[in-house]
Write a structure and sequence with these properties.
four-stranded mixed β-sheet; 242 residues; alpha+beta; Glutathione-S-Trfase_C-like; binds glutathione; Glutathione S-transferase N-terminal domain-containing protein
Length: 242
């Protein structure tokens, strides 16, 4: 199952990065972390754009890809599916379970991730850019409400008696878990008891803890005062076509 040459993980410690570090830990695939410091613009370097044309991390290079040839993959959902296929793990054991894993994986990629990202932006980082609070209120309320709705969808799903989102523990859990950050998203997990229990259950897994800890010493705070955080905000927010 495991290739001899380690997978190169292009990474920064954020929720999208954690999805892949958690998956690699869970699957027992050897990997080497290559930091992409998005706060100083390493995501725009030509070498990185070759493997990740959307200038975002995470991305991977697997030296032992299909037919034994190297392959690069960008987009965390595509990476999770690739690693699950490669390792034969955490993608259900039949087509029905794979369909469920895909449904919830895409739900995270198209819904929870982007909406929660906007909630973080309007509730926290934007305050450092737009001093007029009244201009932030609509966006903050819109995305906080949408995250609340999405937490409710997870609550309903888990209340059906599932221990994990798609049935058996899968890449769908690995995609969703890193994005349940209630403090930054204006939510209270006590309002969602099944989601809270699932969050604790997944968070107790040693591989989840190991994946979540990868590169933790690198993580900065985009809402912080100071020159570095200000420069990072300038670089990250308000990007247009290059
Ligand atoms: N849909 C992408 C999103 C990745 C993403 O947004 N990555 C952020 C950090 S969490 C990034 O690299 N940002 C760099 C930038 O905005 O320039 C995925 O899931 O892989």
């Amino acid at each position: 199952m495991a290739s001899s040459a380690p997978i190169e993980l292009y990474y920064w410690p954020t929720p999208n990065g954690w999805k892949v570090s958690i998956a690699l830990e869970e699957m027992g695939l050897p990997y080497e972390m290559r930091p992409v410091n998005i706060g100083i613009g390493e995501q725009f370097e030509p070498g990185f754009l070759k493997i990740s044309p959307n200038n975002r991390m995470p991305a991977i290079i697997d030296p032992d890809g299909p037919d034994g040839q190297p392959v690069s993959v960008f987009e965390s959902g595509a990476i999770l599916q690739y690693l699950a296929r490669k390792s034969g793990q955490f993608y259900g054991s039949n087509e029905r379970e794979r369909i469920a894993a895909d449904e919830w994986l895409f739900w995270q990629m198209g819904g929870l991730g982007p909406m929660a990202g906007q909630a973080h932006h309007f509730r926290s980082y934007a305050r450092k850019i737009e001093p007029d609070e009244s201009k932030l209120e609509y966006g903050a309320a819109r995305y906080t409400n949408e995250v609340n709705r999405l937490y409710g969808v997870l609550e309903t799903r888990l209340a059906l008696g599932h221990d994990y989102i798609a049935g058996p523990y899968s890449i769908a859990d690995m995609a969703i878990w890193p994005w349940i950050l209630p403090d930054g998203q204006g939510q209270d997990l006590n309002d969602f008891p099944h989601l809270k229990a699932w969050h604790e259950r997944v968070g107790q897994r040693p591989a989840v803890q190991a994946g979540r800890a990868v590169g933790k010493e690198l993580r900065g705070n985009l809402a912080a005062d100071g020159k570095d955080a200000e420069a990072a905000r300038k670089l990250l927010f308000g990007q247009r076509a290059r």
